[in-house]
Amino acid sequence: MELITLEVQSERAVIVPGAGCQCLSYRAGTLEVIAGPASPDAWREHPHRGGIPILFPWPSRVAGARFTFEGREYRLPVNEPARGNAIHGFACERAFRVTRRGPYFVTAILDSSDYSDLDAIWPWPFTLEIDYEVGNGLRLKARLTNTGDSIMPFGFGAHPYFHAPLNPKGSRDAMLIQLDADAQWALDARLVPTGSLDPLSGKFDLRAPRAIGTDTYDDVFRMAPVSTDATSTARARLIDPSMKIAVEVRADAVFGEFVVFAPPNNPVVALEPYTCAPDAFNLAARGVAAGMRLLAPGQTFEASFEIRVSVP
Asked: Is the pLDDT of residue 248 over 60?
């Protein structure tokens, strides 16, 4: 499986187009930021447990692996059997084709017409291009085009895993999380939004930096409106006080939700930008506005975010 190294000055990223076009690692100076899988081949068993998995055509969970759109029910493969859900789409499970590359950038495409089996999973033809660029941060840009003849529902997201702590000699408990959120989606036992939003309180109020301590997270937050000022603060931050360093995820305004994932017994934290809440298709069918997007035939949608290392 081909590994593409992007490098400029003291920054280095490794991209694996054949493994869902994920970023295997990103280094800024001597700091290893991204917690990637043990190897590119480990991706085959767990496509979204390390690196930066691409989440499309739905991020997170679709309840019961089924949804209704325009009066028709669609069934999806169950890949979270413990809860009976479909999770994170299928883009992270597919090989992308490289269409452009240079010393510090690469573009790869997932064309649904290359995979005949996708017709049974997702009846809307599409192309999804992913651009990576390194230099003063790591940037990812997605460009989605509806190549079919009917309106396509979709959501897009990414799942960057960060080392926690960033300092190998530091403590995960001491790591701080900050998030520019204004509400939290209430979740049921399957970790699917109920459709209601809760005010931020306790460990879920991350508007000011909060130490992880012994807490765990697998939670969905609605983001506060993003300033149009190019100098506006980061939308999500992971801070290692032992190094006085912060990793920031700065996302376009189209990313209306973020998931914070800090699992037990695993030294990682994921700060995940989503264009919609989990289960957005089913929420939309119930009349709940949760960010589901519609793409007309021939139309293109773009979204981007960047990861930077800074001093908090």
From this structure: yes
Rg (CA), the chain: 18
Q: What's the rounded mean pLDDT across residues 122-136?
A: 97
CB under 8 Å to 26, separation ≥6 — which residues? Answer: 11, 12, 13, 14, 32, 33, 34, 134, 138, 307
Residue 181 near residue 189 (C-beta atoms within 8 A): no
Provide the pLDDT for residue 228. 58
Q: How far apart are CA 204 and CA 170, in angstroms?
A: 23
Residue boundaries of the structural domains of the chain: 4-310
State the Cα–Cα distance between residues 224 and 139, nearest whole angstrom: 22
Q: State the pLDDT confidence band at 233, using cuts at 50, 70 and 90.
A: low
Listed residue (128, 1, 111, 5) closest to 56, CA to CA: 128
Query: Which tokens go with 110?
Result: 């997932």
CB proximity list for 141: less than 8 A, separation 6 or greater = 130, 131, 133, 302, 303, 304
Q: Taking the complete model, does pTM exceed 0.70, yes or no?
A: yes
**How does residue 256 score in pLDDT terms, banded at 50, 70 and 90?**
very high
Sign of CA dihedral 86, 87, 88, 90: negative
Q: Quick check: 112 and 126 in contact, CB under 8 A?
A: yes
Write down the architecture of domain 4-310 according to CATH.
Distorted Sandwich (2.70)
Peptide bond into 57 cis (omega under 30): yes
> End-to-end distance of the chain based on CA atoms, in angstroms?
38
- Judged against a pLDDT cut of 70, whether residue 231 lies above it is answered with no
Q: HSE, CB side, 13 Å, CA atoms: give it for residue 4.
A: 26
> Residues of 176-194 as b/e, b for ≥16 C-beta within 10 angstroms?
bbbbbbebbbebeeebbbe
Identify the three-state secondary structure at position 112: helix
